[in-house]
Amino acid sequence: MLQEVAMKIEDMKCAGCEGTVRKKLLTVKGVYEARANFKSGAVLLNVSSSFQSSEAVKAIRELGYTPVKPTE
After folding, report:
1. The domain spanning residue 58 has which CATH number?
2. φ/ψ of residue 47, rounded to 5
3. Phi and psi dihedrals of 14, rounded to 5?
4. What's the CA gap between 6 and 67, in Å, rounded?
5. pTM recorded for the entire structure
6. How many structural domains is the chain composed of?
7. Which end of the chain, N or C, is less surrounded by CB atoms within 10 Å?
8. Rounded CA gap, 16 and 22, in Å?
9. How far is Cα 68 from Cα 2, in angstroms, rounded to an integer?
10. Range of 12's domain?
């Protein structure tokens, strides 16, 4: 069963950032869908039970962005 997880990323500045973040998050185990919005700094993820929020945070940091811990 999938659940939705919301996450904030403080320094997305453009649509290109949205695409970069989305593509990276889709590589995280358990992430099935990722939607990013640079204007609000929000990312919505549809994830399975194997999803680990720490892995999503790590992936975002690897891109050079500042993630805020997801709320499940």
Report:
1. 3.30.70.100
2. -135, 160
3. -155, 175
4. 11
5. 0.89
6. 1
7. N
8. 10
9. 21
10. 3-41+50-71
